[in-house]
Design brief:
Length: 97
């Protein structure tokens, strides 16, 4: 028996923890008890697996996403810097009129 704790977001909730060999089977919010096995992680190059549960069926599954790279972070920061620079320019020019 396993207790699966999730974030409660419907229809697919992020699995937060898994307790194995539980003794206390009292109901706890955002949890369910199951005998099902954890699915195998597929080896998808460049992708990071995250365990989710379909709340209506209590089926466990992995969702794969590409982790943010250093280049992605640099590009995001450059975009934010450009937006802030433009906003500052607009404030300065608007205040000078």
């Amino acid at each position: 028996m396993k207790r699966i704790t999730h974030d409660g977001v419907s229809p697919n909730a992020l699995v937060l923890s898994i307790e194995h060999n539980i003794v206390n089977q009292e109901p706890i919010p955002n949890t369910f008890i199951t005998d099902q096995s954890i699915p195998q992680i597929d080896d998808v190059p460049g992708m990071q697996p995250t365990l989710y549960v379909k709340l209506n069926t209590q089926e466990l599954f992995f969702n794969y996403s590409r982790p943010e790279t250093l280049q992605d972070q640099v590009q995001r920061l450059q975009n934010q810097q450009s937006i802030m620079k433009n906003a500052m320019d607009d404030l300065i020019m608007g205040g000078a009129l």
